[in-house]
Structure formats: structure tokens, C-alpha cells
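Section 5.1 Outputs to date
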Amino acid sequence: MTTPLSPKPRKRNLLLWTGLCIGLIIAGIGVGLLSLPEILSADWMKPRILGVVKPLIAPGSLSVDKFQFGWDQPLVISGFQIRDQDGTVVIDSKTVKLSRTLWQLIEDPDDMGTLSLEEAVIDIKREPDGTINLIRALGSLIKPNAGRDFAIEIRKSTLKVMTPELFEPFVSNNADILIDLPQSPGPLSFSLDASAAGARKAKFALSVQGKIQRWTDKSVEIQAEFDRWPIAGNSMGIGATAWATGRVIVTEGPKQFHIQPKIRADIQWSDSSNLPSFLTAVDRLQLQSDIRASIDPTVDISLKDTHLSFPGIDATLQGKATDVSGVKAAIDLNGSVKVDSTKIKELLANSDTAPVELEMTPIQFAAHGPIGKNELKAMQANLNTKVKRFKSGGIQLGEMDLDVKWLDGVLAVAPIDTTINDGRLHIEPLIEMTADAKPARIKLGAKTTLTRMSLDQLTSQNYMVYPAPALASATRVNGFISAKISDGVIPLADKSIPLSLKGDMAFDDVQFGPGPWLLNLTQSVGLPPPPTFSLDQPIQFEIQGDRVIQHGLSIPIGQLTRLDFSGSVTFKKELDLMVEVPVTPTLLQNVPLFQSFLGQEQFKIPIRGTLDKPEVDKTAFDATMKDLGEKLKNRAVDTGLDMLFNGILRGKVPRFIPNPNDPPPIPKP
């Protein structure tokens, strides 16, 4: 018979088993805790961890190759990439360290520590709408009211910055960036230091420091300093790049900002070969301003103490712009532009532009009213100044008032009436606008007149050789010209419209000594040149683009005949002319060469080349001679007309004799 166990041993066994189970559980928990870093570091845990981080970085995204956790070691992340909402990589780093250990993250989850990146690649882009991909990618991690203590530290990394103003990316291989977001009440602070060499080997640098009070008065304090920072722009078909040096200070906020820029810049013009040399000589600017900006809720801007300086030009501006980005955008601005005539003269002396002497009062301007495209008719603006003296290239203008007004959607220029080289100039311009309210073109009507402007050798060479190419290299030029414009268009913003002018020009007692090529032309065809040539017949001229076309230019050759010019000269002085010599009875009696043309009305000489090197167009001349008949051509050649093909218009005045190297002509039966 078995004896039953007593109650005491049974209790001891129960306690023993209970203690053993508890021990096993504690041991299991301990083993689990000890192996937790390895579990969290396992590949199968990576999607779960990223799932926890995803809401913090939305709308951006984070991808990693591997997490390495440790109870007493900082978190290490390999293959770290942050993308913006469009999937573009913004931050790329092989290795990233978080200053917090696993135990510290569990103990205080609100302290995220410092995320440190070294030798990373950061690609920052600002879109035309003002959004920045880095800000979008970091999401709620850097929201102004984020409640976690967090910092991002980037050292010795590659920084790429691209904005609409930059003609090329800013690329720095030694950038340092710090973003510190402490818990309340600490301010968000940030700093950036970077430098690089641009594509043109110009070193440029950027340094930014700032603080944003997120929890108290909501103020900001930002200072950006930059050295040769590149900024590109294009307006009305004229492009330029400026390398800016200076600083911008931003204070107050978050809805009211005080902005104080102080910048100087070197300018390089795009397509400078197509720009006037006096414009490309403007190679620097300075800007200083005091700006107040409000974004509550519309964007309003006020300006004071604003100065913009170019070489020889100093502009001031003050006023305000309201609802800048809204549908009721409006401005109320005024200012002045002061021209330093001495500086302008020095500036133009360094270009290929003719020297200019200019004296004028400061240009005063003002504008107020709506600036929306559909409301511009309600805006009013004006600009006025007095030009006291202008002299350049032999042209001297007297005192004149310039008064421009924008009223009821029309840009009106008051009639200009002044003296010009002892004569009078009267202009009544009309400015036409493009569909987007930009000055498209200036139109000149029949009331634009030039009356008895005196000529001399300088004005002749600079201006008159285009409508009157016979004046090329002319000497002892004197007399007067008058002109009337019947129609004219000068393009401004609309470059698709070419320059065009049409009118009549009259010569009054214009006399001159001939230049070499006109002298050669007359002597080579057997005409005795008079000691002084004269112009007394009116001409019709037309400017089409870069070409001046004229008809009616006629130069008398004593009582014998005359030289009639027609054709064109480009602004590059390229010739496309036809010189016609009417065969008169007097000419037939006195010049044996032209006896070959008995019964013909005109002898034609086509001239090409340039004003400096005119040439007879042999091909065109042959075609002309063929029209006169093969026999007539041979007779003309027999009399020495072939000298026209041997450069008679290029230098020395030729003697009208046969070439001694040519074989004697064979007598004709």
C-alpha cells in the first residue's frame, strides 16, 4: 500500500516549478533583449523599420541597404538615400550615423539625436514656383512645430545647388551643413558653408546662418553671404550672367519680413557679338535696399532707400507693390536715374562706339495702378528729362525735352523738336505695344523731318555713305541735307519685326572732293573728273533690316554726263550697286570710248565688295555686255574697257592706256 505525499513536499515542488518557469521567462527576455539589436538589424526587419519612419519623412521617402543597431553603439545606416516626392535622389550617402544608441532611443523617443553624414552627395534644386526639393524630402522632420529634438549634420560632402537664376549648377566638394531642431523653446537653427570653382574657373562661395523662433515670437534671423555667386537672367532677348558678392539679411517674420540686401556684381553679357559695344561695356552693378515684405495673406512689398548703380548711372527707387502674386497686383513707385556724363564718356571710350558728350538732368519716373495684363489701361506712368547737350560722331543735338506717358493703355511720347548741326529735327514717335503689354516698336510718321542739317567730312563718313555711297572717303565735304520720313518702324521688344524706314532726302549745295574709288571710277572709263563733285538731285531711300537702299543718287561729270547710283549698302558697308553712265551727245563727242555705244542710252557698271574695297562684278558686267551684243563687247574690250576687271577701283588711279605686257591688237580688216 502506497503512502500519499504530504502537503509540504507538494508545495515545495509547485514553488520549484514556478520559480523555474519565471527564471526561464526572465532568461528568455534577457536573451531576447541581448539579441534585439541583431533582430532589428536583420534584413527581414528593414521594411518594418522603414514603415515607422515613413510618416516622419512624407512626402519624401527613405531607402537603406542595412541598419546596424547596438545597445551601447550609435545606430549605423548603410546605403542611405532620401528622395523627394518625385522620386529624385536628394541625399545619397554610403554610411550614416545616428548619435543615439538603441537604449537611448527606447528610453527617450522624443530625442532623435544627430544624424551625421560624411562624404555624402546632396542635390538641391529650387523650382520656378519657389519650392525646394530638400525641404519637401525631409517632410515633417523639419516642420517648424516638430516636437522631436533632432539635428542633421553633413560634413565634407558634395553639394549641388541649381536654381532658375543659375546658368550652371553650384557644385562644392567640401560643403558643411547643419540643421538643428531642438525641442521647445529652442529655435530652429541652420548653417551652410560651401565653396567651389565654376565652369569658367571662377571661385565662388556661399555662407548662410540663421535662426527661426518656432515657439515664442516667431521671429527669423538669417544672414547669407556670398562671393562671386552666379546669377543668370534674360529679358527682351538680352541675356547676361552676374557674379554677385555681398550679403542679404532677413529679420522679423513669420508674416512680416525685413530684408536688407547689399550686393555688387560683375556682369558678362550673352551673345555679346550681337549687342552694341556700349552695352557690353557695362560690366558691373551695385544694389542696396531696405525692403519690407508681408505675406498676410497677400504678398505686399515696400521699398525705401533702394539704390541701383551701373557705371555712369545711379538709380533710386521707392514705393510699394501690393498683392504681387494675386489677381489685384498693383504698384505705386517713383524714382530717378542720374547720368554721370563724364563716366559715360570714359565708358564709351573703352568700346568701339564713337565718343559721346552728354549732359542731361536726372530722369524722373513714376508709376501707379494695377499691373495685371487685363488691367494695364488703368495704370498711369510717366518719365521725363531734359537733354541739354548731345554730341557724337559729328552729330550735335541741342536742348530737348523727353516726356513719355502711359495713360489709358497708350504709351505716348511728346513731340521732340531740337537743333541738329545748325538744322532742325522734328520727331513725333508713336510706340505700339505687344499683346502682353510690352513696347513692341516705335513708329515714325510723315511729321518726322530733318531740315538743312549741315554736312562735314565726319558726318559724311559716319552716316551719309549709306544713302549716298559716292561720299565714301570724300574730302572737303560741305553743304546741307533735308529729309522727310514717310514711314518708319524701329523694333523694341518684338525682334521679329525688322528695322524699316522710308523717305526722301534732298541735297542743298552739297560739294565734296572725291574719294579714291570714285576718282578711279571716273578716270578708268575716260571721264575727266572735275576738281569738285556736287550733289543736287533728291533721292529716295529705304532701310530694310541692315540694308540701306537708295534710288536717284546722281553726280554730274561736268557737261559730259553724270554717274547715276542705285542699289544698297549694308550697315557692314557691303555694296550691291549699279552705276549707270548716260551716253549723251556731248559724251560721244569728247570721250572716244563711248563712241562704241552710239545708239545706246546707258553704260552700266555693277559694283560689289565693300565701301573700303569696292570691286566691279565681272560676272554681272559680262551679262550686261552680252545684252549689248557680242560685237559691241569686243569693240569695248579693244578700246581698253577690260581694265575694269583689273582692280581699277582698289587703289592707285590708273592711266587710261593699254597694258604694255599685252600683245598688240590685231588689225581688223
